[in-house]
Every structure is written in C-alpha cells, then in structure tokens.
Amino acid sequence: MSESPTERPVPELIDDRTAGMLRAVAEDEVIGHIQYLVLETPQAALAPVHTIVDPGHEGHGIASALAAELYATAGREGLAVAPLCPYVAQWAQRHPDRAAPASEELLEAARVKVAEDPSLW
C-alpha cells in the first residue's frame, strides 16, 4: 500500500543536549528543530531561541510537537523554560496547563546569555 500525499510519517523527537537541539526526524531526515541554550542561574532552565520547520513540512504540527516536547522534557528533568523564541512563547500562552510561565528574572538571564554570545541567537 503506498503512502497517500496527505499521510506523513510521524517524526521522532530527539533531544541533543550537547548541541542544544531538539530535532524532529522523519525517515532519517531532520524536518524541524528547536535550538535552545541551557541556563544554570538564576535557576536551571532550557531557553529556546529558534524554532525552524522545513518548508515542505510546515502546517503539519511539527513546531507544536517540538514545543510540547521541550516543555515535557523540562518537566521530567525539573527544569524551567525561558522561551525567547516567539513561536515557543506563543505556544506556551496557548497551553498554560502544559507550560508554566517563566519569571522575568529568568527571561532576562536568558537574554543576557544570548547577548554575551550572539552565536546562540
């Protein structure tokens, strides 16, 4: 049975903490990712800075799945999330039951870290 044009493989979500990437992979191809940095102070947190989905896969819930998994990962690890990425921040506002708000102090610490190393942005 062949795959219909509307059927897409469900991506596997893979966290690569060393690279600061949460990747969506389908059929051995990265089809989207969230780039993030890890904060230690004022508290341990993940700070997503970019969400990118391959144009051929946009509109299929990939970015939403990535944001949900980022918050789920943080929750499992007891970490906060400081969303600098506009998409992740909007996702969090739409899903307050799954995404605790970040304190202004934590958001500022994430902004400072990015300002100190623009390659993170």
Automatic annotation (TrEMBL):
Pfam family membership, one: Acetyltransf_CG
Domain of life, source organism: Bacteria
InterPro entries assigned to the protein according to its UniProt record, in alphabetical order: Acyl_CoA_acyltransferase, Gcn5-rel_NAT, GNAT_dom, GNAT_YJDJ
N-acetyltransferase domain residues: 1-121, 14-108
Residues of the signal peptide: none
SUPFAM superfamilies: Acyl-CoA N-acyltransferases (Nat) (SSF55729)
Protein name: N-acetyltransferase
Organism encoding this protein: Streptomyces albidoflavus
Lineage: Bacteria, Bacillati, Actinomycetota, Actinomycetes, Kitasatosporales
